[in-house]
Design brief:
Order of helices and strands: HHHHHEEHHHHHHHHHH
Strand content: under 5%
Number of helices: 15
Number of strands: 2
Length: 287
């Protein structure tokens, strides 16, 4: 089910939401602010999160292990202490990218965002699919080494854990976190006017839980609701009109990355659907 959901490019529209949910955790925000060039290249951080996820979801076992090792090496360098107090966390509290509870929160934000965006922009879920989707996300978290106690087994348990965290003082948005969020929502790119980002900001405001939307200082007035509705209608129309094979960009990316370089997949100018069929066959054979 995770492959089905992750194969939709519409999920990229939820990227800013997922990042803002993650940054609301003070330890994650501090790690990002102090150990990356996030303010200069915020979308690179999203890519660094999605890149190994794509390989873990669509790749061979060998590629999965390499992706896990790469993530572990990156995490080894990320540790420090909170520069100030936020929520329940006091200044000087230690943080680390190997913090399993923080890792679980990152995974839960991705699971929640994928569920929300798929339902909003692609289609509703059939009976049992939400449970299957969370089961796949949970399995991915276990592969990362997150202890089972941080990842509820059933869908209802996962939703309860999500609600509990959203309502707790585990999350806190201060001035520094809002500055990081500004880099996500309105990145400074050459030749692109700031106003270009406003429809995307409106969409992110509509997708965020109310508490965090207010904490980040985002509005959800008539204009933002109108722009968000346009996003939804245009994506729904795209889903109806464009065949799945031509929408499945993450799967195409995974196929190119994993197989073309290894000479396992012939580049004969065949259609996207044929390409994906070959990639899927190789993936299944590798499992």
């Amino acid at each position: 089910m995770l492959r089905r959901v992750a194969g939709e490019p519409a999920l990229l529209l939820g990227g800013p939401r997922a990042l803002l949910l993650q940054l609301a955790h003070p330890k994650i925000a501090a790690a990002v602010a102090e150990h990356s060039d996030f303010r200069e290249r915020p979308w690179l951080r999203l890519w660094r999160t999605l890149d190994p996820l794509v390989l873990l979801v669509f790749g061979t076992e060998h590629q999965r292990q390499r992706a896990l090792a790469s993530v572990a090496r990156t995490h080894d360098r990320v540790r420090g202490r909170l520069p100030g107090s936020a929520g329940r966390w006091r200044a000087g509290a230690a943080y680390s990218a190997h913090d399993r509870a923080a890792q679980a929160w990152v995974l839960i934000t991705l699971a929640d965002t994928s569920e929300l965006v798929f339902e909003r922009f692609v289609r509703g879920f059939h009976p049992g699919e939400r449970e299957a989707l969370w089961s796949d996300w949970r399995g991915l978290g276990l592969v990362f080494g997150i202890p089972p106690r941080f990842l509820p087994e059933g869908y209802e348990g996962y939703r309860a854990a999500l609600r509990e965290t959203l309502e707790s003082d585990l999350l806190a948005v201060g001035a520094k976190t809002r500055a990081l969020a500004a880099a996500v929502l309105r990145p400074k790119l050459p030749l692109l006017p700031p106003a270009l980002w406003e429809p995307a900001v409106s969409l992110t405001a509509a997708l965020l839980p109310p508490r965090l939307r207010e904490a980040y200082g985002l509005r959800l007035g008539a204009r933002e609701r109108f722009e968000s509705a346009l996003w939804t209608r245009s994506q729904r129309l795209t889903w109806r009109l464009v065949p799945r094979a031509r929408r499945a960009l993450p799967r195409l990316y995974a196929g190119v990355r994993l197989y073309a370089r290894a000479g396992l997949l012939e580049d004969d100018g065949s259609s996207a659907a044929t390409f994906l069929d070959q990639a899927d066959a190789l993936q299944q054979a590798s499992q």
